[in-house]
Write a structure and sequence with these properties.
- The structure is a homodimer.
- Chain A is of the alpha/beta class.
- The first copy, chain A, is 41% helix and 12% strand.
- The first copy, chain A, has seven helices and six strands, in the order H-H-H-E-E-E-H-E-H-E-H-E-H.
- Chain A has helices at 7-17, 24-35, 39-55, 90-99, 126-134, 149-162, 187-195; strands at residues 57-58, 65-66, 80-87, 104-108, 140-143, 168-171.
- Chain A has a four-stranded parallel sheet with strand order 4-3-5-6.
- In chain A, strand 1 (57-58) and strand 2 (65-66) form a beta hairpin.
Chain lengths: 201, 201
């Protein structure tokens, strides 16, 4: 497309196109929208970019992303600090928090074991989890990794690893999604829903 | 969503969400992707934003966006400098250039007359167009505004304005889009296609 657009606009569009899910057409639209904004608005965007990159790091306890030394969830004394929910990414923390049903704390692995992608247990924040549990106050660890091959494998690996530590290890329930239909459920989900059926009376 | 995410991440997501067509979920995904990039990559994004805002201005001749005093199309002596194609926005220049069929120059209005939105002829770059034509070397002005109410109104307004200057004024043809089907063409397009039918033999 070079030549039809001004070079700085083209370069900005290329930067937008590097973001996930942004195609070159959308990138051009976004680049146009930037130059039609005020200097102050663009500066505020730039400041937010630099600040997010500079100020965000891992919580020293749960490894979630935070701008503080210890994240607000870990330092919240109202929460049950004896239950750890192990998740793949900060997005999962956000999803579970939205449910409003969980009052314990988290541990973010920042990935799942996946030999195909070259991700081994050493690449995940497992050492920090073991160190938290070894301090002795943890009673239950909930494996809340995704119900995928990698999520299951990671949950199983961690369950084995935690066995000698004498801590209760649980896994999120599998079954039909609420609001879903039998017709569109896949075979494995149906199998899990049957296997884990609950008693009504 | 505040509280589940680190504040700088939340602020960055809000900035992304201000861009056109970016919802809050996508904005969070983009914000996450930024912090997983290297410092150099984020700096390069920031530089592109600042440079686009700082270096881009209107071509002193055609009013298209450019980082130069006169844009490459206006300063290209190979192009027919006696034919001006009048468009709404820089994106239209880009679209026409992609067709590869136009070898004249452009004039970008940066909007269309739209009293409902408070856009009057004074808000558009019409004075610069008149000044270019009054220099005497222009032979044809092609109205290439969109086939919408505003596009038609602007084309008609300009045609009237240019009449006393003795310059040929044309309008892009309306008809069926190539590759389209009669079945899905709207009534007005079909009417225009019939009205402007061409003789085969």
């Amino acid at each position: 497309m070079a030549g039809y657009y001004a070079l700085p606009l083209e370069l900005l569009a290329e930067e937008f196109a590097r973001l996930p899910g942004i195609g070159i057409k959308t990138a051009h639209r976004l680049a146009y929208s930037v130059i039609s904004r005020s200097d102050a608005e663009v500066q505020s965007f730039v400041d937010a970019l630099l600040s997010a990159k500079r100020d965000i790091h891992f919580c020293s306890c749960c490894q979630n992303l935070t701008e503080l030394e210890v994240c607000p969830i870990c330092s919240d004394e109202e929460r049950d600090q004896t239950t750890i929910c192990v998740v793949e990414s900060p997005k999962d923390v956000s999803a579970l928090e939205r449910s409003g049903e969980y009052h314990g704390v988290y541990h973010v692995l920042h990935g799942l074991i996946s030999p195909i992608d070259g991700v081994t247990p050493e690449n995940l924040h497992i050492r920090e989890l073991l160190s938290r549990i070894s301090k002795g106050s943890i009673q239950e660890v909930i494996m809340a990794t995704n119900p995928t091959v990698e999520g299951d494998a990671t949950a199983m690996y961690l369950a084995q690893l935690l066995e000698p530590l004498g801590v209760k290890v649980t896994r999120l329930a599998f079954g039909l999604p609420v609001g879903g239909t039998l017709e569109y459920a896949d075979e494995v989900t149906l199998y899990k829903a049957l296997e884990n059926r609950t008693i009504l009376h």
